[in-house]
Specification:
This protein is of the alpha/beta class. It folds into 3 domains: 2-80, no CATH class; 94-252, Alpha/beta knot; 271-347, Helicase, Ruva Protein, domain 3 (Orthogonal Bundle), CATH 1.10.8. 47% of the residues lie in helices and 12% in strands. It has 12 helices and 12 strands. It has helices at residues 2-33, 40-45, 108-121, 136-142, 147-150, 159-162, 186-196, 215-218, 237-252, 271-287, 296-310, 314-347; strands at residues 48-51, 54-57, 64-65, 72-73, 79-80, 98-103, 125-129, 154-156, 168-172, 183-184, 202-206, 223-225. It has a 7-stranded parallel β-sheet with strand order 8-7-6-11-9-12-10. It has a 3-stranded antiparallel β-sheet with strand order 1-2-3. A two-stranded antiparallel ribbon has the order 4-5. The longest helix has 34 residues, at 314-347. The chain is flat, with a radius of gyration of 37 Å.
Length: 348
């Protein structure tokens, strides 16, 4: 018994040694074909181990020597070197030259809401002039999926520094000023800024929540923008930013989101389907005694006019016809139950 166990153990050891030798030879051959330096002996000397197609360090967690092209290990220990896949390049947009500037924002929530509006409308550059203290991690908590915008936020000490490289500056103001400026709406502002963006960055500037932009700051702008409202002209800072970016987004034609088509879409109803619906509708109304005090011809003519103006498709018209069926069935069940109840009363 002992000899048999020793024999089996020795046989298993030899099989493992042969498998390791074959694997090492195939690895060396495949590595040469992929242009990777073979790390056989040197890998063991440098305390490296082979796992999942790459060399891992046993001492430094996370450190690895990755081949030029990743190797995929198959079940039969054959290594396949796939071709490198070209990554699609990001398509540039005219809105990439639009800069949003917030002058002394007082609430981090407004900064986060502004970042969300920028992400929604395709604008990625935000500049803050003497902002209130805020935590970028909390900003991402308010505006999910906006790390690319938050990571590029820059701070400035003055408005002049923030718009120094801009060729056109539009300032938003909600109050009347003593000086007569040429005031435009956001819809009128959008084509002006986008045309100027061909020569360089353009900026839209918003003041702090309580007082807006002072007159000396408005002097630095080329364009004064006013959002039309009712007599209650107080807008939230992020809301004003969203209105401005929405007009720029529409003017640039930069909408990339496409709504999915309806799950079930059928063609128009046929003449036969229309007539069947009218027949069932008349039966249902008659069962409800709707024509007791009304002219049936006039009522059905009004039903036809109403249904045609609604323009239902074939599926919707069938659903309306099913409603008529259910009305008739419900009335039938009620009548049967009433008749059965009366029969029981008579027997008693």
């Amino acid at each position: 018994m002992v000899r048999a166990c020793v024999y089996l153990a020795e046989r298993q050891r030899r099989a493992c040694a042969i498998s390791a030798l074959v694997l090492q030879r195939r690895l060396r051959r495949t590595s040469r074909q992929a242009g990777v330096e073979h790390l056989g002996e040197r890998g063991h000397q440098e305390n490296l181990s082979w796992r999942h197609g790459v060399w891992h360090s046993r001492t430094n967690f996370g450190a690895r020597v990755v081949p030029r092209y990743p190797l995929r290990v198959t079940r039969r220990f054959s290594f396949v070197c796939p071709r490198p896949v070209a990554r699609p390049q990001a398509v540039s947009s005219i809105l990439d030259r639009v800069v949003v500037v917030l002058h002394k924002p007082q609430d981090p929530i407004n900064i986060g809401a502004t970042v969300r509006a920028m992400k929604n409308m395709g604008v990625g550059t935000l500049r803050l002039v003497q902002p209130c203290p805020y935590d970028p991690w909390r900003i991402e908590g308010v505006a999910h999926g906006t790390r690319d915008v938050v990571s590029k936020i820059t701070h400035f000490n003055s408005l002049a520094e923030a718009v120094a490289d801009c060729v056109k500056v539009a300032a938003f103001a909600g109050k009347r000023r003593a000086v007569k400026w040429s005031v435009v709406t956001p819809r009128e502002m959008a084509p002006i800024l986008l045309d100027a963006s061909a020569d360089g960055p353009v900026a839209i500037v918003f003041g702090q929540e309580d007082h807006g932009l002072a007159a000396e700051l408005l002097d630095q702008a080329h364009l004064l923008v006013h959002i039309p409202t009712t007599e209650h002209a107080s807008l939230n800072l992020a809301q004003a930013v969203l209105v401005a970016l929405y007009e720029l987004h529409l003017t640039a034609g930069d909408a990339t989101r496409v709504l999915a088509p309806p799950k079930k879409e059928e063609g128009p109803a046929t003449h036969d389907e229309w007539e069947r619906f009218y027949t069932e509708a008349a039966r249902a109304l008659a069962a409800l005694d709707f024509f007791r005090t009304r002219n049936e011809t006039q009522v059905m003519r009004a039903v036809r006019s109403l249904a045609v103006r609604a323009e239902p498709d074939s599926r919707e018209l069938k659903m309306m016809r099913s409603m008529c069926f259910e009305v008739l069935r419900t009335i039938g069940r009620i009548q049967n139950a009433t008749a059965a109840s009366r029969a029981v009363d008579r027997e008693e």
